Amino acid sequence: MGLIASRVALIQLESKDAARDGAKRAGLFLAVVGCVFFAWTLLLAGGVSLIASSTGWPWAWVAIGVAVFHLLLAVIFAKLAKPSGNPAFPHTRAEFQKDREWIENFQKAKKSND
User: How many CA atoms lie within 13 A of 22 on its CB side?
Assistant: First the structure.
């Protein structure tokens, strides 16, 4: 019972840490997205207007070109945002592996004593 309780406690500790870290990162990410969105929107509106007036191109075509450029950037950034690949709950996994090895050794010792 003590072994199971200690493993459950370890899982709870790591889960709380992961949830706290995830919530903090999500909040900061939302704040960054909001600020960047408004700043970028204003820069794009000014940039499209400036390009359209200086080149004589219709502003609608300039806006479509800028939109296509941003879609390409979004695809590139989405591919770069893949998970890091680090396994979740490394301490718990290590403890479970130790438990498996202990159980295997215990079963082998028990069979050899029979």
Answer: 7
